[in-house]
Automatic annotation (TrEMBL):
GO terms for molecular function: transcription coregulator activity. It comes from the Eukaryota. One of its GO terms (biological process) is regulation of transcription by RNA polymerase II. GO terms for cellular component: mediator complex. This is Mediator of RNA polymerase II transcription subunit 5. InterPro entries: Mediator_Med5_fun (IPR014801). Keywords: Activator, Nucleus, Transcription, Transcription regulation. Transmembrane segments: none annotated.
């Protein structure tokens, strides 16, 4: 629990302000003396301010703040500082909220001028900090004067100006302020004076402050203006086609990338809820593949033309914003930001530092970027708030004692030597006082490193509840995640090499029954390597030489279930996994869903089928003997299981075998010996029932027996739940009643695999809904960008619903509408993400398809537009073409830098795409749009330097 949770719970329960203060003091007294009183006061103030996001202008929150200031636990200057910093967030720009907060500051200041604690700014504060507070006040002034006119606008504007005037009174001696900071304030003040109307007193004070800053800057102002002119000139000449007024504050590009790496939230239209998707986390360019992620970071850095400081600022800031947007997935975001992102930054720096063509002060840039991030307390506060609501605990124990999220992040940066302890202490003075976690303390007490500690805990006799508790502790300590993931991968490989089926079975079961374990591993190592080792084991394991085949086959089943579950959970569409020059196929898993005509089975499979049918479904059989287990390959048993059920049901339907014999045979599949084969069996039974309906009573009864069995493995239910839910819906139509309806639908819904598409009850509306879903996803991504949030767009999901060309045409329509609103920067970045981010292998290459198939029809349509719309279209065409081709080129260069090969990740080399596009545009002499596009592209020196083939088409 944290102060934010105490405040939230008290407020929501209607606790009086005085009682709330007493509870806060009691809570603070029980915490370790890590934070200073100033830090505690800031946390207290922020705990109330953050609630204004959910309760704009609530008078109860105003009473809480007034009571805290009056009590003295919250000094006025601390409240003003935290309020002005929080007001930079667009989520706090409700007029009535800002009016209440300004009113508190002014009223307290007026009635207690003689009290030091109730000064707007501490009298002993340095001028550097005071100027920072004034800058926050100027930002509030700008915000207020750009808000829509409302009933509170005049009062709010008046109070804001009064507050700023009071703050300016503290700017007496600014000689210690740096020229850089003075230049920023100088630019802010003059921009306000030039663009907004203030009352006479406010204008005079702003002009006086501007003059004071001008005197401090002196001739350095000329240097700054010249540098700005040079930058403008470079942009005019085309250096960095993504440049623009908002490029240095862009969180769209890296926000989309973070969602691509970690998790994507899709909107289920029917359920009107968010459905978590694993996205690319386990794929070639996902979070677990260090080289793949570094490739993306190198490509984005080069393409964006950002300085290292700006790049690092946006990289970290966009990740933090992503966390705040996803309270239901906040713990996986924290695991990524604290446990994985520092390692990726370290790997990125190692690559770019070795590239002599990219000479920069990388370490200095990272430090400056980190400082910039910590100057956004509104985001940091919201992160802590999101984590406290989405992943917090209501009881404080030694195990879950609250710890600052950003402090954990700083500790990881210090651990990896990305920053030194001095900077860490400057950003968070309590970093050196933070006690190690209980898990780290336990490891330290054993005098073992963490890998050996993990080895000692992972024992065959570990109970499931103990395993869950143990994994929960690891999950909470993000600093241990890298070690845990590497341990799992190394352990997996060694067990496969040693052919230790019992220990491998235990490890596989740990991973497929505890989602957090698999999530940790997927963030840090390549899941494809785990799958390769598991498939290699299944491919080479020989049951003929083992002493106890019954136990061995049961253990082998856990490996099969792990492979099936992991393939589906992480949405692998590939049928082959390759490592160290060897390839293993997953085709045998897909064949398990099919019922084969017995006469078409190959001789070896037919022999196994006859032997197993006799052993299971023959009344004279003595059961499953060791001999048949030794002689049957697990792959073959998996392949023939669905066919065994089909033939047994046919035999029972024609009275060739008794029903008791049938269900006696079915009972073998409810135990650990054969229940790992059930994914294919249940899917085949479900399909047969859908075809025959209620005329398949035996199928229904068998399916119910298997699904409701207490020993049915969790992965089986997760993988089969979409089919079962659809079946329940079909059987339940028109009031149909069958024993199958006894299946616990709620339980199945809860465990429904996140890889499955949400089931649609009305097949007739399916096409319409599928078309609306991508359209809504595209509209949402622009709305999120417009709201200064990190956008989310699952391109692969959209392409599973509608054809590629239809999706790209939809995207262009939304790009055009946003361009009409002047949002060209957002258009460029979103289009670049869609067209140039590497996709799964089953997705066709979007860049060549867009340029060669979709673009010509868009240009032809633009030729028929009105002049005003045609001008916008030309601007958009030029911006998108130049951006995506340059981005594709930088991605290819990044592949060479990181991997050392010239593999083309987008289906066609950027030079080939550009060459054909240039020829196509040049051939359309009668198309004014085509000619305008060529002329505009050729005018960019940087573009023609990379793609000179366009010059010949003038």
């Amino acid at each position: 629990m944290s102060l934010a949770e105490v405040t939230r719970n008290c407020f929501q329960c209607g606790v009086a302000p005085s009682k709330w203060i007493s509870l806060c003091k009691l809570f603070i007294s029980k915490l370790p003396p890590i934070d200073s009183p100033e830090t505690v006061a800031s946390h207290l103030s922020n705990s109330v301010l953050v609630l204004y996001r959910s309760y704009p202008g609530n008078p109860g929150l105003k009473e809480y703040l007034e009571c805290a200031i009056e009590d003295g636990i919250l000094p006025l200057f601390t409240f003003v500082s935290t309020f002005l910093q929080a007001a930079r967030s667009p989520e706090l720009d409700t007029p009535i909220t800002l009016d209440h907060l300004c009113q508190i500051a002014l009223e307290v200041q007026k009635r207690s001028d003689s009290q030091v604690a109730n000064s707007l700014v501490p009298y002993s504060e340095s001028q550097i900090v005071i100027l920072g507070t004034i800058q926050d006040g100027l930002a509030l002034l700008r915000t207020v004067h750009t808000l829509p006119i409302s009933q509170h606008h005049n009062e709010l504007a008046s109070r804001t100006e009064e507050l700023v005037r009071h703050l300016l009174c503290f700017a007496s001696d600014i000689s210690q302020v740096s020229v850089a900071q003075a230049c920023v304030s100088f630019a802010d003040v003059n921009d306000l004076l030039n663009n907004f109307r203030f009352n006479l007193e406010t204008r005079q004070m702003l002009e006086s402050f501007s003059m004071l800053l001008g005197l401090l800057i002196g001739d350095d102002a000329k240097v700054a203006r010249e540098a700005q002119m040079m930058q403008s000139l470079q942009l005019a000449l085309g250096k960095g086609d993504t440049g623009g007024p908002a490029s240095d504050t862009d969180v769209i590009t890296l926000g989309l990338v973070h969602h691509y790496l970690v998790v994507i939230l899709c909107i289920d239209i029917l359920l009107r809820s968010q459905v978590s998707k694993i996205s690319h986390r386990a794929h070639e360019f996902g979070a677990g593949n260090t080289l793949g992620v570094v490739t993306l970071l190198v490509y984005i850095f080069r393409w964006s033309s950002w300085t290292p400081t700006v790049f690092y600022t946006q990289l970290i800031l966009s990740a933090l914003i992503g966390l705040t947007q996803h309270p239901t997935d906040c713990t996986i975001w924290k695991a990524f930001i604290v446990g994985r992102l520092p390692n990726l930054i370290s790997a990125f720096e190692a690559i770019v530092s070795a590239d002599h063509a990219m000479v920069s002060d990388w370490r200095g840039g990272f430090r400056s970027g980190l400082i910039s991030v910590f100057q956004r307390p509104d985001i940091i506060i919201q992160c802590d708030h999101t984590l406290s609501e989405g992943g917090g605990s209501n009881m404080i124990t030694e195990e879950n004692m609250p710890s600052s999220f950003t402090r954990e992040l700083l500790q990881q940066f210090v651990k990896l030597e990305l920053i030194d302890k001095v900077l860490g202490a400057q950003l968070d003075p309590s970093i050196s006082k933070e006690n190690m976690s209980k898990l780290s303390s336990d490891t330290h007490d054993t005098s073992m490193d963490f890998s050996l500690y993990l080895e000692s805990r992972l024992t065959p006799d570990m109970a499931r509840n103990d395993a869950q508790s143990w994994l929960d502790r690891i999950w909470r300590d993000a600093g241990t995640h890298t070690t845990f993931a590497n341990f799992v991968l190394k352990k997996f490989s060694s067990l496969v090499t040693a052919v230790d089926v019992e220990s491998l079975s235990q490890l596989c079961k740990l991973l497929y029954t505890h989602a957090i374990a698999l999530d940790i591993v997927a963030l840090h190592v390549k899941i494809s390597d785990l799958l390769f080792h598991a498939l290699l084991f299944l491919d080479s394991y020989d049951c003929e030489t083992i002493g106890d085949p019954q136990t061995a086959v049961s253990h082998l089943g856990d490996v099969v279930l792990f492979v099936q579950y992991t393939l589906a959970r992480f949405q692998f569409d590939t049928t082959t996994f390759t490592k160290d020059g060897r390839s293993i196929s997953t085709a045998f898993l897909k064949s398990a869903f099919t019922v084969y005509p017995v006469e078409n089975l190959p001789p070896n499979e037919l022999l196994s089928f006859n032997g197993w049918f006799k052993a299971i479904f023959d009344s004279s059989s003595e059961g499953i003997e060791d001999t048949i287990l030794r002689s049957t390959q697990p792959k073959i048993l998996l392949r023939i299981s669905a066919t065994l059920f089909s033939q047994a049901i046919k035999a029972a339907s024609t009275q060739k075998i008794d029903k008791d014999v049938l269900f006696n045979g079915v009972s073998y599949f409810t135990g650990p010996l054969l229940n790992w084969t059930l994914v294919g069996v249940i899917k085949a039974l479900s399909q047969e029932i859908l075809l025959k309906g209620l005329s398949a009573p035996i199928h229904i009864e068998i399916l119910q027996t298997l699904v409701l069995s207490s020993s049915c493995p969790q992965p089986v239910l997760a993988l089969c739940s979409p089919q079962i839910l659809r079946l329940l819906s079909e059987l339940g139509k028109d009031g149909a009643k069958t024993s199958m309806i006894d299946v616990d639908q709620v339980t199945l819904s809860e465990i429904q695999t996140i890889t499955a598409e949400p089931f649609l009850d009305d097949p007739k509306s399916r096409v319409q809904i599928w078309q609306q879903d991508p359209q809504k996803a595209l509209q949402n991504v622009f709305l999120q960008a417009r709201s200064h949030k990190t956008p989310v767009l699952d391109v692969e999901r959209c392409l599973r619903m509608i054809p590629v060309t239809k999706f790209l045409q939809m995207m262009w329509m939304d790009l055009f509408e946003s361009a009409k609103l002047g949002e060209m920067e957002s258009c460029k970045r979103i289009a670049t993400f869609v067209l140039t981010m590497p996709r799964c292998s089953n997705v066709p290459p979007l860049l060549p398809i867009f340029i060669h198939l979709v673009l010509p029809s868009l240009i032809a349509a633009a030729d028929r537009q009105q002049p005003q719309d045609q001008n916008i279209s030309v601007e958009l065409f030029v911006a998108v073409i130049s951006c995506v081709l340059s981005a594709a080129l930088h991605l290819e260069w990044a592949m060479v830098t990181v991997y050392g090969n010239d593999r083309v990740p987008l289906g066609q080399a950027s030079s080939a795409v550009a060459r054909r596009l240039a020829a196509d545009l040049g051939s359309k002499r009668r198309s004014p749009t085509s000619q305008n596009i060529v002329q505009r592209l050729v005018a960019s020196q940087s573009f023609t330097a990379n793609f000179p083939m366009f010059i010949a088409e003038l």
